[in-house]
Amino acid sequence: MSTQALFGQLLIGLINGSFYALLSLGLAVIFGLLNIINFTHGAQYMLGAFVAYFLLNKAGLGYWWALAVVPVLVGVSGMVVERLMLRHLYRLDHLYGLLLTFGLALILEGIFRNEFGSAGLPYSMPESLTGVYNLGFMYLPIYRAWVIVASLAICLGTWFLIERTKLGAYLRAATENGALVQAFGVNVPRMITLTYGFGVGLAGLAGVFAAPIYQVSPQMGSSLIIVVFAVVVIGGMGSIMGSIVTGFGLGVIEGLTKYFYPEASSTVIFVIMAIVLMIRPQGLFGQR
Prior knowledge:
The chain is mainly alpha-helical. Helix content is 73%, strand content 2%. Among the domains are: 44-94 and 141-216, no CATH class; 221-288, no CATH class.
Protein backbone atom coordinates (compact mmCIF):
# COMPACT_ATOMS: atom_id res chain seq x y z
CA MET A 1 0.00 0.00 0.00
CA SER A 2 1.61 3.25 -1.13
CA THR A 3 1.29 6.59 0.60
CA GLN A 4 0.55 8.27 -2.71
CA ALA A 5 -2.45 5.98 -3.26
CA LEU A 6 -3.71 6.79 0.25
CA PHE A 7 -3.57 10.54 -0.35
CA GLY A 8 -5.17 10.01 -3.75
CA GLN A 9 -8.15 8.29 -2.14
CA LEU A 10 -8.34 11.04 0.49
CA LEU A 11 -8.51 13.60 -2.31
CA ILE A 12 -11.28 11.65 -4.03
CA GLY A 13 -13.07 11.47 -0.69
CA LEU A 14 -12.82 15.23 -0.21
CA ILE A 15 -14.15 15.86 -3.73
CA ASN A 16 -17.09 13.50 -3.17
CA GLY A 17 -17.59 15.08 0.24
CA SER A 18 -17.79 18.51 -1.39
CA PHE A 19 -20.75 17.38 -3.48
CA TYR A 20 -22.32 15.51 -0.56
CA ALA A 21 -22.08 18.66 1.56
CA LEU A 22 -23.44 21.04 -1.10
CA LEU A 23 -26.36 18.82 -2.04
CA SER A 24 -27.25 17.82 1.52
CA LEU A 25 -27.03 21.50 2.50
CA GLY A 26 -29.68 22.36 -0.08
CA LEU A 27 -31.85 19.50 1.18
CA ALA A 28 -31.39 20.61 4.79
CA VAL A 29 -32.36 24.20 3.95
CA ILE A 30 -35.51 23.07 2.15
CA PHE A 31 -36.55 20.55 4.80
CA GLY A 32 -35.57 22.63 7.80
CA LEU A 33 -37.36 25.76 6.63
CA LEU A 34 -40.16 24.37 4.41
CA ASN A 35 -40.70 20.88 5.86
CA ILE A 36 -40.55 19.35 2.36
CA ILE A 37 -38.50 16.25 1.52
CA ASN A 38 -37.22 17.37 -1.89
CA PHE A 39 -36.54 14.19 -3.86
CA THR A 40 -36.17 16.29 -7.03
CA HIS A 41 -32.81 17.51 -5.73
CA GLY A 42 -30.78 14.99 -7.72
CA ALA A 43 -32.61 15.91 -10.94
CA GLN A 44 -32.03 19.61 -10.22
CA TYR A 45 -28.33 18.87 -9.73
CA MET A 46 -28.36 17.15 -13.14
CA LEU A 47 -30.31 20.09 -14.59
CA GLY A 48 -27.59 22.49 -13.40
CA ALA A 49 -24.95 20.48 -15.28
CA PHE A 50 -27.07 20.42 -18.46
CA VAL A 51 -27.80 24.15 -18.30
CA ALA A 52 -24.04 24.79 -18.05
CA TYR A 53 -23.55 22.50 -21.06
CA PHE A 54 -26.21 24.38 -23.06
CA LEU A 55 -24.74 27.76 -22.13
CA LEU A 56 -21.34 26.64 -23.39
CA ASN A 57 -22.47 25.00 -26.62
CA LYS A 58 -25.46 27.17 -27.58
CA ALA A 59 -24.65 30.61 -26.14
CA GLY A 60 -20.86 30.44 -25.96
CA LEU A 61 -20.85 31.21 -22.23
CA GLY A 62 -18.05 29.36 -20.45
CA TYR A 63 -17.58 27.95 -16.99
CA TRP A 64 -17.29 31.23 -15.06
CA TRP A 65 -20.48 32.59 -16.58
CA ALA A 66 -22.20 29.30 -15.81
CA LEU A 67 -21.26 29.60 -12.12
CA ALA A 68 -23.18 32.88 -11.98
CA VAL A 69 -26.08 32.13 -14.32
CA VAL A 70 -26.94 28.47 -13.67
CA PRO A 71 -27.87 28.76 -9.95
CA VAL A 72 -30.24 31.62 -10.83
CA LEU A 73 -31.91 29.76 -13.70
CA VAL A 74 -32.26 26.49 -11.80
CA GLY A 75 -33.40 28.37 -8.69
CA VAL A 76 -36.10 30.18 -10.70
CA SER A 77 -37.31 26.85 -12.10
CA GLY A 78 -37.52 25.59 -8.52
CA MET A 79 -39.56 28.64 -7.47
CA VAL A 80 -42.02 27.92 -10.28
CA VAL A 81 -42.41 24.33 -9.00
CA GLU A 82 -42.93 25.63 -5.45
CA ARG A 83 -45.55 28.17 -6.56
CA LEU A 84 -47.52 25.81 -8.79
CA MET A 85 -47.25 22.48 -6.93
CA LEU A 86 -45.52 22.29 -3.56
CA ARG A 87 -47.43 25.18 -2.00
CA HIS A 88 -50.56 23.04 -1.90
CA LEU A 89 -48.86 20.29 0.14
CA TYR A 90 -47.45 22.16 3.15
CA ARG A 91 -50.34 21.24 5.42
CA LEU A 92 -50.33 17.59 4.38
CA ASP A 93 -48.16 14.67 5.46
CA HIS A 94 -44.49 14.63 4.36
CA LEU A 95 -45.26 11.62 2.17
CA TYR A 96 -47.23 13.71 -0.35
CA GLY A 97 -44.33 16.10 -0.93
CA LEU A 98 -41.92 13.19 -1.25
CA LEU A 99 -44.12 11.45 -3.83
CA LEU A 100 -44.60 14.63 -5.86
CA THR A 101 -40.90 15.51 -5.93
CA PHE A 102 -39.96 11.89 -6.69
CA GLY A 103 -42.36 11.91 -9.65
CA LEU A 104 -40.91 15.20 -10.91
CA ALA A 105 -37.40 13.73 -10.67
CA LEU A 106 -38.42 10.73 -12.78
CA ILE A 107 -40.03 13.01 -15.39
CA LEU A 108 -36.97 15.27 -15.65
CA GLU A 109 -34.55 12.37 -15.87
CA GLY A 110 -36.70 10.59 -18.46
CA ILE A 111 -36.92 13.69 -20.68
CA PHE A 112 -33.16 14.21 -20.71
CA ARG A 113 -32.43 10.51 -21.17
CA ASN A 114 -34.75 10.28 -24.18
CA GLU A 115 -33.21 13.39 -25.71
CA PHE A 116 -29.49 12.83 -24.99
CA GLY A 117 -29.18 9.13 -24.16
CA SER A 118 -27.37 7.64 -21.21
CA ALA A 119 -23.80 8.40 -22.28
CA GLY A 120 -22.04 11.31 -20.63
CA LEU A 121 -21.44 14.55 -22.52
CA PRO A 122 -18.00 16.18 -22.12
CA TYR A 123 -17.65 19.58 -20.45
CA SER A 124 -14.20 21.12 -20.46
CA MET A 125 -12.80 22.78 -17.36
CA PRO A 126 -11.62 26.42 -17.60
CA GLU A 127 -8.05 26.91 -18.74
CA SER A 128 -7.20 28.89 -15.61
CA LEU A 129 -7.93 25.82 -13.47
CA THR A 130 -6.10 23.20 -15.54
CA GLY A 131 -2.84 21.64 -14.42
CA VAL A 132 -1.63 20.24 -11.12
CA TYR A 133 0.29 21.28 -8.03
CA ASN A 134 3.24 19.13 -7.00
CA LEU A 135 2.91 18.79 -3.21
CA GLY A 136 5.85 16.45 -2.96
CA PHE A 137 3.88 13.47 -1.73
CA MET A 138 1.20 13.71 -4.44
CA TYR A 139 -0.01 15.74 -7.42
CA LEU A 140 -3.06 17.89 -6.66
CA PRO A 141 -5.25 18.80 -9.67
CA ILE A 142 -5.99 22.52 -9.51
CA TYR A 143 -9.63 22.16 -10.52
CA ARG A 144 -10.35 19.61 -7.81
CA ALA A 145 -8.71 21.82 -5.21
CA TRP A 146 -10.89 24.70 -6.43
CA VAL A 147 -14.05 22.60 -6.05
CA ILE A 148 -13.18 21.63 -2.47
CA VAL A 149 -12.34 25.18 -1.37
CA ALA A 150 -15.29 26.80 -3.18
CA SER A 151 -17.77 24.24 -1.83
CA LEU A 152 -16.53 24.71 1.72
CA ALA A 153 -16.76 28.50 1.40
CA ILE A 154 -20.33 28.33 0.03
CA CYS A 155 -21.41 25.91 2.75
CA LEU A 156 -20.01 28.07 5.55
CA GLY A 157 -21.47 31.20 3.96
CA THR A 158 -24.91 29.57 3.86
CA TRP A 159 -24.60 28.51 7.50
CA PHE A 160 -23.68 32.07 8.50
CA LEU A 161 -26.59 33.51 6.50
CA ILE A 162 -29.18 31.26 8.14
CA GLU A 163 -27.78 31.03 11.67
CA ARG A 164 -26.17 34.43 12.24
CA THR A 165 -28.13 37.07 10.28
CA LYS A 166 -31.46 38.84 10.68
CA LEU A 167 -32.76 37.28 7.47
CA GLY A 168 -31.94 33.82 8.80
CA ALA A 169 -33.76 34.64 12.03
CA TYR A 170 -36.87 35.58 10.03
CA LEU A 171 -36.62 32.31 8.09
CA ARG A 172 -36.34 30.21 11.23
CA ALA A 173 -39.13 32.13 12.93
CA ALA A 174 -41.41 31.67 9.91
CA THR A 175 -41.11 27.88 10.23
CA GLU A 176 -42.21 28.04 13.87
CA ASN A 177 -45.03 30.59 13.58
CA GLY A 178 -45.59 31.95 10.09
CA ALA A 179 -48.73 33.90 11.04
CA LEU A 180 -46.90 35.82 13.77
CA VAL A 181 -43.97 36.68 11.48
CA GLN A 182 -46.38 37.85 8.78
CA ALA A 183 -48.07 40.09 11.35
CA PHE A 184 -44.75 41.98 11.59
CA GLY A 185 -44.92 42.82 7.89
CA VAL A 186 -42.84 39.96 6.49
CA ASN A 187 -44.18 38.35 3.32
CA VAL A 188 -43.87 34.74 4.47
CA PRO A 189 -45.11 33.03 1.24
CA ARG A 190 -42.56 34.98 -0.79
CA MET A 191 -39.84 34.11 1.73
CA ILE A 192 -40.72 30.42 1.45
CA THR A 193 -40.59 30.58 -2.36
CA LEU A 194 -37.19 32.31 -2.30
CA THR A 195 -35.88 29.80 0.25
CA TYR A 196 -36.87 26.86 -1.95
CA GLY A 197 -35.28 28.59 -4.94
CA PHE A 198 -32.08 29.11 -2.93
CA GLY A 199 -31.90 25.44 -1.95
CA VAL A 200 -32.50 24.37 -5.54
CA GLY A 201 -29.91 26.90 -6.74
CA LEU A 202 -27.31 25.17 -4.54
CA ALA A 203 -28.07 21.91 -6.37
CA GLY A 204 -27.64 23.68 -9.71
CA LEU A 205 -24.32 25.14 -8.58
CA ALA A 206 -23.13 21.68 -7.55
CA GLY A 207 -24.04 20.50 -11.05
CA VAL A 208 -21.76 23.13 -12.60
CA PHE A 209 -18.91 22.09 -10.29
CA ALA A 210 -19.45 18.43 -11.21
CA ALA A 211 -19.72 18.83 -15.00
CA PRO A 212 -15.95 18.93 -15.76
CA ILE A 213 -15.24 16.05 -13.36
CA TYR A 214 -18.04 13.53 -13.95
CA GLN A 215 -19.30 14.69 -17.39
CA VAL A 216 -22.94 15.62 -18.01
CA SER A 217 -25.35 12.70 -17.85
CA PRO A 218 -29.10 12.24 -17.15
CA GLN A 219 -28.22 9.63 -14.49
CA MET A 220 -25.70 11.76 -12.60
CA GLY A 221 -28.31 12.87 -10.06
CA SER A 222 -30.07 9.58 -9.48
CA SER A 223 -26.79 7.83 -8.69
CA LEU A 224 -25.99 10.40 -6.01
CA ILE A 225 -29.26 11.40 -4.36
CA ILE A 226 -29.65 8.25 -2.22
CA VAL A 227 -26.20 8.78 -0.68
CA VAL A 228 -27.00 12.46 -0.11
CA PHE A 229 -30.22 11.56 1.71
CA ALA A 230 -28.20 9.21 3.91
CA VAL A 231 -25.84 12.11 4.67
CA VAL A 232 -28.79 14.31 5.64
CA VAL A 233 -30.21 11.62 7.93
CA ILE A 234 -26.85 11.06 9.63
CA GLY A 235 -26.25 14.78 10.12
CA GLY A 236 -29.80 15.44 11.28
CA MET A 237 -32.79 16.43 9.14
CA GLY A 238 -32.78 20.20 8.75
CA SER A 239 -29.40 20.74 10.43
CA ILE A 240 -27.24 23.10 8.35
CA MET A 241 -23.97 22.46 10.17
CA GLY A 242 -24.78 18.75 10.36
CA SER A 243 -25.00 18.58 6.56
CA ILE A 244 -21.67 20.35 6.11
CA VAL A 245 -19.68 18.36 8.66
CA THR A 246 -21.28 15.02 7.79
CA GLY A 247 -20.94 15.57 4.03
CA PHE A 248 -17.21 16.20 4.12
CA GLY A 249 -16.62 13.66 6.90
CA LEU A 250 -18.42 10.82 5.15
CA GLY A 251 -16.65 11.63 1.90
CA VAL A 252 -13.30 11.17 3.66
CA ILE A 253 -14.47 7.96 5.35
CA GLU A 254 -15.64 6.60 2.01
CA GLY A 255 -12.25 7.45 0.46
CA LEU A 256 -10.35 5.72 3.28
CA THR A 257 -12.60 2.68 2.96
CA LYS A 258 -11.77 2.44 -0.75
CA TYR A 259 -8.10 2.30 0.21
CA PHE A 260 -8.22 -0.13 3.14
CA TYR A 261 -11.26 -2.28 2.27
CA PRO A 262 -12.62 -1.48 -1.23
CA GLU A 263 -15.42 -4.05 -1.03
CA ALA A 264 -17.19 -2.03 1.66
CA SER A 265 -16.81 1.42 0.05
CA SER A 266 -20.28 1.38 -1.55
CA THR A 267 -22.06 0.45 1.70
CA VAL A 268 -20.05 2.10 4.47
CA ILE A 269 -22.22 5.27 4.50
CA PHE A 270 -25.40 3.23 4.88
CA VAL A 271 -23.85 1.12 7.64
CA ILE A 272 -22.97 4.34 9.48
CA MET A 273 -26.52 5.60 8.92
CA ALA A 274 -27.99 2.44 10.45
CA ILE A 275 -25.71 2.71 13.49
CA VAL A 276 -26.50 6.41 14.00
CA LEU A 277 -30.25 5.82 13.73
CA MET A 278 -30.07 3.08 16.37
CA ILE A 279 -28.04 5.21 18.78
CA ARG A 280 -29.32 8.72 18.00
CA PRO A 281 -32.46 8.67 15.80
CA GLN A 282 -32.50 12.46 15.33
CA GLY A 283 -29.00 12.40 13.74
CA LEU A 284 -25.66 13.61 15.00
CA PHE A 285 -26.57 17.31 14.93
CA GLY A 286 -30.37 17.09 14.92
CA GLN A 287 -32.79 17.91 17.69
CA ARG A 288 -35.61 15.77 18.99
